[in-house]
Specification:
The chain is mainly β. The protein has 2 helices and 10 strands; from the N terminus they run αβββαβββββββ.
Length: 248
C-alpha cells in the first residue's frame, strides 16, 4: 500500500509541469487589442480594368483607404476563441481609375465612412505558444510553427453613408437601408513580443447583404457589395481572476 502511494506521488511530481503548462492559457483568457490598416471596396463602382468581381482580382490600389479597430478576445478553449470587433473605416471607389469601358464611361465616384460591430469565432490551426522562448527575445530560434495561425468567420452589422457625385441611368436607384448584415471571414497570425503582448496580422473579407455600400446598384449587377481589411494589431493579455473575470 505504501509503495502504491509513493508511486502515485512520484508520478504526480513528474506530470505536474505538463499539467501546469497545459492549463497556462487559462490564466490569460481575455485579451484587449487595437489595430490599423488599409481597407478596400469591391462593388459596382471603381475596381480593376475589367468587369466587376469580388475579392482581390478586382482590387484598385488607388482607391485604398483606412480602418481602425478595437476589440476584446475571449479564449473558450486553448485553440478556440471569440472576438468582439468595433471597427471604423473609410471606403472609396471611382470609375476614373479604371480602363474598363463600361466603368470608365459611367464616370461615377463615391466615398463612405462605415462602422462595423461584429463577433467572430476563431480556430487556431497552429496554437499559441506561451513563454519567453516563443517571443522576439529569442527570435534566433524562430520557427513558423511558433506563430499562432488561425482562421475565423463571424457576423455583425455595418452602418454606412455613401456620398456619390452623380446618378447615372444604369443605377437601379432604389431605396436602401444604411444598416445591413455583414459576414467576416479570413485568416490571422500572432507572435509574442513578450509574455503579455503580441503583434498580429489579420486579413478579413467582409460580405454584406446590400448592393448599396457605394450608393449605386447597376442594372446588370448580380452580386452584393463587399469590402476587405488588412489589419496590423497589438494584443495585450489580461490575467484571469478566480471569479473567471478579467483583471484590469
Amino acid at each position: 500500500m505504501k509503495f502504491k502511494i509513493l508511486y502515485i506521488f512520484l508520478l504526480l511530481i513528474v506530470l505536474m509541469p505538463v499539467i501546469t503548462n497545459a492549463q497556462r492559457w487559462k490564466r490569460t483568457r481575455y485579451e484587449v487589442l487595437g489595430g490599423i490598416g488599409p481597407s478596400n471596396f469591391f462593388g459596382d463602382l471603381g475596381g480593376a480594368n475589367k468587369d466587376g468581381t469580388h475579392f482581390m482580382s478586382d482590387i484598385d490600389m488607388k482607391a485604398t483607404r483606412y480602418h481602425i479597430v478595437a476589440g476584446i478576445r475571449y479564449k473558450v478553449q486553448e485553440k478556440m476563441a471569440l472576438k468582439l470587433n468595433l471597427i471604423y473605416g473609410r471606403i472609396y471607389g471611382s470609375d476614373i481609375f479604371t480602363e474598363a469601358p463600361g466603368r470608365a464611361n459611367r464616370n461615377v465616384t463615391f466615398s463612405s465612412g462605415l462602422f462595423e460591430p461584429s463577433l467572430q469565432f476563431e480556430y487556431s490551426i497552429l496554437k499559441e505558444r506561451l513563454g519567453t522562448r516563443y517571443t522576439f527575445r529569442n527570435i534566433q530560434r524562430f520557427k513558423f510553427t511558433y506563430v499562432n495561425t488561425y482562421v475565423f468567420l463571424g457576423f455583425g452589422g455595418v452602418l454606412f453613408n455613401p456620398k456619390i457625385n452623380h446618378i447615372v441611368k444604369s443605377n437601379k436607384n432604389q431605396p436602401f437601408h444604411r444598416f445591413n448584415m455583414v459576414f467576416p471571414i479570413g485568416l490571422g497570425f500572432k507572435y509574442a513580443m513578450n509574455r503579455r503582448t503580441t503583434l498580429g496580422f489579420e486579413f478579413g473579407q467582409r460580405y454584406t447583404t446590400t448592393d448599396y455600400l457605394d450608393g449605386h446598384s447597376d442594372t446588370h449587377s448580380k452580386a452584393r457589395d463587399s469590402y476587405a481589411f488588412l489589419t496590423i494589431n497589438v494584443t495585450y493579455k489580461l490575467k484571469t481572476a478566480r471569479s473567471g473575470l478579467p483583471k484590469f
